[in-house]
Amino acid sequence: MSTRKLVSASFANLLIPISGLLVSPFLSRELGPEGRGVYAALTLPIVVWGWIGTYGLQDALSYHVRQGRLSSRAAARFSLVAMLPLSVLTVGALAALGFFLFPDTAQYRQFLILVVFAPLHVLSNLLIGALTGNGDIRGLNLVKVVPALVRTGVVIFACLAFDLNAYQAGLLFVASVLAGLAFGLVRLWTTPDPAAQDATPPAPGTAPAAVPTGSLIRYALACLPGVLAAVSSARLAQVIGLPLIGPRELGYYAVAVSVAEIPMVIATAARSVLLGRQGSGDPRAATQVARLAVLASVIACGLLALSAGYAVPLVFGADFAPAVIPTMILCAATVLYACMIIYTAALLAHNRPGWSSGALVIGSVVGVVALLVCAPLGAIGAAIASLAGYAATMTIAAVGVGRVPALRSVRMLTVPYGEDLGLIRDRTARIAAILRRSVVPVAAQHEKPETTGTKENAPMPASLMADVVAACRRLGPGTVGVAALIILAWLRVVPSQAVQFLTVGRPVFNSREVTGSHVGDLIGDGITLLFLLLAVGLTGHGLWRRRPPGRRWVAVALAALLAIELAGLLRGQMPGAVAAAFPLAALAIWAQRPRMEVLGVIGVLGALTASGSMLFAAIRPELALLSGADAGEKQVLLGGLLAGPFLHSNALGLALALSLAFVFYLRPPAVRWACLVLILGALVWTGARTSQLAAGAVLLAYLLLRLFRSRSWPASAVAAAGGLLVIVMPLITTDPESFSKRGQIWTALLDRWSDRPLSGWGPKIFQEPAVAAELGGQFSHGHNIMVQLLVVGGLMAIVPFALLCFVAWRRSVALATDGHPAALLFLVAFMHVSWLEASHLSATLTGYLAWLPLVAVALAAPASPPARSARPPSPSAPPAPPTESAPKPAPVEQRAFLP
């Protein structure tokens, strides 16, 4: 149980430095090195006094609640009453401290305003102490995490939306503690005490047990020197760093601390567990959490130190490159800090507050002296001072631990035993098993896996590889191969374009010339070649294994693509090798007949695209965001329109909207909803109104399917409305300025098509200068799928494409009736993005989100044909070919609408 508490508390505590890491790049770029240093000087004294201002009562509350001498409700009342004198001391002390820290009168006045919130930080730490003693890890997590989440969202939004200064950012920071106080008070007031649950209830009229005020004060006074010393060791360099090392060096040091303090959450979580009520009387079992925390801290600090040289300038900007060396020094100091925190927590838990305070005081003195000596070295000197202080405290505390009979030796708190490593191995194997089960598609999960008597005894890597091979065999080469085709197409479009941007920068908006790099071009060409070879291999494998039915339907899927290329040949436009990509992919899908659940890969890749684009915008906003004239008339959100690795925010919006429907193929609810939130959040940031409309139509169709269950006609009506817009809007629009000048584009292109109505002008018509003059700008597509197909392929392209969409709709209706709505929802999205856009219907791999799902849906079979056998098939409906290794029809109660 203590290990679970360690993991829970560590993950919760990890959100606090993660919050700092998320906020710090925005603040660093917004404020600059000097402003970042002023921000640290304004806020850190208040945070530090949140610890000092408890005057040891935080640890006293933990000890007395842990021993059952104080109830949770009594601890809450005591904290509220103690706040009256503590608030006076807090405000007075900080006002006096600010007089020395801020010679600038304006900054001092700003600091005095922020000091008003300092008593709330003190109260929050008192509540944390009571919750720690009660062993209420969940309540402890709420008090810590909720303010961190609120602070992250509010500060990042303010940095992107407004011009923020150091004082305004500090005000948002110190006020965020209000979000956690309510949770802590309610938790303490309502949670029953574990020690009192089995006790005899007091007789009616009996007064409640008195609060041991004297004992609390005596214990607090014994802890007070250690509290003061611990705070000075942890944060003194930042508190008094402004006059000693200057704002610029303090900014570097603050950034280094925000990175190196990440592993500290592990030791902090272990401290909370050690100070809480123990469920085991065995000292070796009770201290297992400490040994695991030290091991995890060593690994985490090593990884951070190795990556600091690359990560710090990348995340915080090139201006903060001098923070790399202090970060590496502080990573080593964090290992010593973890041991120090665990040793002092063990001393407090075994009623040795004097030893804990003495160790912390000595370490603090060493740190202060080292800081004064090393101040000329700037941020590096401050990091060395922290290392020296932690080392001194750890050494003295280790001596004290050796004098506690119950702990036997320091080794019990630091070095893992054999059973500890065995626990790690078992938990790792369990997590790996859960992950293997979660990635198996829905259809494969209903099948019973083959088991052997020797598999359980196989080594872990061999067992994992065997499971992967077995899953691939159950899915079949067709499903695995088509999934690989989708992934290769995504790799060719998204990561390859990101590499291009990082190497040569974002091209000029709407530029005809897109500069590439040799590395990016080589990677892209290699991925395209792999796509072609894999498509050929899958086609040959499927045709060699069996003679697949439905030749006329694959001919429909190929006709539109071939018509476009034929129109180009008639105009003297020679197709490249990539023009064969989608025809070969259509043949591979027809020959293999993969499971429809393979399209869930598109949903996962859509979520990766969304999260990667938002991360790209946080790290390199000048590459991932469109602003100013590039954003056009759209309202800019969060500093610009999110384009990510795409040439325009509309292109990213199209990719996200077309991926949204396939999220519903993902079986684990947590994964499904996480992907939905990521895609919708990024879609809002793009400002792509057409794609946002399509996403809204998808959600509406989903709700209609849930309401009408076995009837798909309402969702089909939503898709038909999008198709009607595709046909009607270009024909009735006469104003050239309509729909952001799309009226002019449609009129010019339809006039062009009327000259060659049968074959069109080929896919390279948009590269002709005369066409650009007629359209009023350089555009690469017709901004409507009907107009696009008519002008590039004529009637030879539009007729088979319309037939392909009709066949896909018939298949999607059958799938939706059987409880698989993703295909029909995709058609809804596809139709609603197609009446104002057409770039997603590219003949290159950038159009994979349109062609591959359309072909897969058109050639798919219903999930459970026997359930629909009572109604004879329509003569006009195409035959339903069997899917590869199709599972047996599930019982009615298992064919739920959504898993």
UniProtKB/TrEMBL annotation:
Q: What is the predominant subcellular site recorded for this chain? A: membrane
Q: Where in the cell is it found?
A: Cell membrane
Tell me which domain of life the UniProt entry assigns to the organism this sequence originates from: Bacteria
Q: How does it sit in the membrane?
A: Multi-pass membrane protein
Instruction: Recite the UniProt keywords alphabetically.
Output: Cell membrane, Membrane, Transmembrane, Transmembrane helix
Q: Where is the composition biased (Pro residues)?
A: 872-890
Bilayer-crossing residues are 38-57, 78-102, 108-130, 142-164, 170-189, 219-238, 250-271, 292-312, 324-348, 355-373, 379-402, 480-502, 522-544, 553-570, 576-591, 598-619, 639-663, 670-686, 692-708, 715-732, 785-809, 821-839, 845-863
**Keyword Membrane, does the record have it?**
yes
Record domain O-antigen ligase-related: where: 675-801
Q: Record keywords: Cell membrane included?
A: yes
Q: Where in this chain does the entry annotate a coiled-coil region?
A: none
- What name is this protein filed under? O-antigen ligase-related domain-containing protein
Record organism = Micromonospora qiuiae
